[in-house]
Amino acid sequence: MAIYCDQTGYLPQDRKRAVMTAGENYKVMRMKDGGEEQVMAGTARDAGTDAASGDHVYEVDFSEIHETGLYYIENEKGERSHCFRIGKDVYKELQRDLQKALYFQRCGCALEEQYAGPYTHPCCHMGDAVLWNDRSVVKEVRGGWHDAGDYGRYISPAAVAVGHLLYAFQLFPESFQESLNIPESGSGIPDLLSECRYELEWMLKMQDEEGGAYHKLTSERHADFIMPEEDKAQFYLFPVSSMATADYAASMALASRVYRAYDGDFADRLLKAAKAAYEWLEKHPEYVGFHNPESCNTGEYDDVCDLDERLWAAAEMLLTTGEQKYQEQVSKLLQEDLSRTDFGWTDVSGFAALGILTDAAGTASPDSVGELRKTVLAEADRLVRVAEQSGYGVAMEPEDYIWGSNMVVLNRGMLLILAAMTAKKDEEAGSPDQAGGEKRSLIYEQTALAQLHYLLGMNAVDYSYVTGYGEHAYRHPHNRPTECDGIEEPMPGWVSGGPFKTPCDEVGRERIREGTPPMKCYVDHAACYSLNEITIYWNSPAVFLTAYFNREL
After folding, report:
1. Mind giving me the DSSP string for 500-531?
2. What whole-number distance in Å separates Cα of residue 182 and Cα of residue 372?
């Protein structure tokens, strides 16, 4: 018997659910100075068998509780859930640490105690890089964020992470007023933009003379588990790809809009880089792929199609410049068989929808807006149905538990937020679309919030997948500095990759029996790179979600 809940907490006015694995009577207890009190009692509702976990589950709905405080749920046998809090600000510190984690990935600078606390280290990776296919070419490309648990830096993941973060800032600026205690704090520029600029300045160095973007910057092989300053291997610039160049153009164009109000010169640099990258794409209409050389084992980030990246690039260039030629490209690419609803590095087409549907200026054509609106709402409706069939409220089917499944969860949360914002515009315009008397926008919003609940502990393995958040937060991310720094507690705020139905690392294969339900294919172990690695683009959609729910603080 277990009781699973969001170990961080719940917002006062929103739906609150927990999951039990037996049909027990329960009571909700509030902890107070000098004792505790019962505030609710009931019997968990039989919700059937959850396909992804194999559990027969029972729902505890305590949405009627609104009072700020610390709570737990107890069944009639005296078994308790983890403690959780109800309050308007339950995700405030979480959002801060999700952002601050990116600072700890900075490459090419020392992390000093006044900003990093105990997680300090000297400058790392200060040498120049060599072009892989022409060793006579040497270039200075210091800076940026380490991509994941390794020390590589990759353009497409960087573009996606920056895209999540800059759209979060653009749409919910009120959620980014807090200091992150980084070296740029107090500059008059929001700290999130300063942190993103650290990545963007590196990205500007990753463009070749013809406008193409180098696919990645890594050593030939992953470093052993050593601190970053101990990694002295030669780093290489790997060949330009059309995927990386399109992602580069898109993120630079988006960034130029966001930074225009703060630093016009920097915005001009970004737009110049975006235009050069887009011109490269026009000169290379064919797909230019990338595959690791035989001797290289660092992240490949390969793709089989670049049409979704080209759609994102065209959309951002349209929104930034207003030029008709980009609208023509958007219209053409919308005729292709693309999802238009995803925000991961393999499929970025959802960014086109995010930009166009939230553009207050109405830059895109009505036909493009209408097509994207229809697609986004249809996918959101599908995700709501999937979440309603899940005993844990997660918008995931068993086959969706791939490598980095928590990224899928969070990206779907982003799509649901976009759908909520889109439906709310319709409702405000006097065209409410309701389901069973409930506004469509609210259904989408509450389903998005359920994805956070899953991430933070309401799942079949009882883990909060964010370090430092929850009584049973995972503690052993696949991350070299965390494993090598001699500090027992991991840096707070890192999102784990999460369950993977077919783990491919040795420890995962040894410890997870064949036939284990997908949601339970997880091990909290530093060697489990296919289950428990961290990445910048798994944190960034979590920032987007928490910023949305923190916007009214």
Report:
1. -SS--SHHHHHHS-TT--GGG-----TT-HHH
2. 38
What span, in angstroms and rounded, lies between the C-alpha atoms of 524 and 238? 33
CA distance readout (Å), 301 to 58, 241, 343, 471: 40, 11, 15, 35
pTM above 0.85, yes or no: yes
Which SS3 state, helix, strand or coil, does residue 130 take?
Answer: strand
What pLDDT digit, counting tens, does each position of 264-318 carry? 999 999 999 999 999 999 999 999 999 999 999 999 999 999 999 999 999 999 9
Rounded Cα distance, 317 and 264, in Å: 17
What is the C-alpha separation between 315 and 357, in angstroms, rounded? 11
CA dist list (Å): 546 to 52, 92, 169, 292, 375: 25, 8, 11, 36, 24
The catalytic residues are: 150, 478, 524, 533
pLDDT in tens, 178-216: 999 999 999 999 999 999 999 999 999 999 999 999 999
Calpha distance 256→381 (Å, rounded): 33
Mind listing the pLDDT tens digit for each residue in 340-383?
A: 999 999 999 999 999 999 999 999 999 999 999 999 999 999 99
Kind of pairing between the strands at 235-237 and 129-131: parallel
**Cα angle, residue 218 at apex, residues 486 and 164 outer, rounded to 5°:** 80
Contact 112, 120 (CB under 8 A): yes
Amino acid at 379: E
